[in-house]
Amino acid sequence: MAARQEVSITVNGKQVRHEVEPRLLLVHYLRDVLGLTGTHIGCDTSQCGACTVHLDGEAVKSCTVFAVQANGHAVKTIEAMAQNGTLHPLQEGFWEEHGLQCGYCTPGMIMSAADLLQRNPDPSEAEIRHALKGNLCRCTGYQHIVNAVMYAAKKAVGEPVAAGIAGATPERATASVGEAPAALVSGEGIAVAGTPTAEAWEQDYGAIRGVYPAITESELDEARAHPQGHLEGMVHAISRRTGETVDAVRARLTTLLHRRS
Ligand code: FES
Ligand code: FES
Q1: Rounded mean pLDDT of the chain?
Q2: 256 C-alpha to center of ligand 2: Å?
Q3: Domains and CATH numbers, the chain
């Protein structure tokens, strides 16, 4: 075993010193020595990005860096993103835009996105997708993650932001159990004034599938990511599946959901 080496690293603004084996990876140092378990390990091939932290302000995969390489440098982890009990705009964005399901990839996503926003405060959707190429998510689907980063970018420059920034995410719950979403015809699409509860969604699925038996629940789920909103997404999904015109499906769906609201 190689002789242990002393490292002195500024982690989240605090200087820490330890003797470590030269082979110790930074991610293991953070998690096992410092107890900063917000940095995750999701692979052993340096592909997933769950371990992303900032080293001297730049995003790195901490499973590809030895702790001794961080000696004399500054490391920032997800634990330091919230300040004085206030979420970082990116954390708020992931919360508001439903940018996670299990959350395993989220710390790495946020650290990579923070790196992007400090280099490019107003990224396009394509630039966000490019910047997050090294971060894999197994369960959310990337549209909501992109929306979360756009939310944070707008918030950081002081633009007003609201949940459902790109129209892909319903607003926060306003319906009571069993109540249908408040859907109103608005211009070309169906505007959503509230998010149904899980139970209400089940009822809506049932009602829609009663009229369109061929549509699957997963198709309707995917429709939630439609840029004009989840109900409009359903209209297009149903139209694709049945061959009925978008206008005809929209009219029928609106009537169907209105009848229940
Ligand atoms: S754990 Fe580092 S890239 Fe997957
Ligand atoms: S939210 Fe589960 S892996 Fe991304």
Answers
A1: 81
A2: 34
A3: 5-79 (3.10.20.30), 89-156 (1.10.150.120), 183-260 (no CATH)
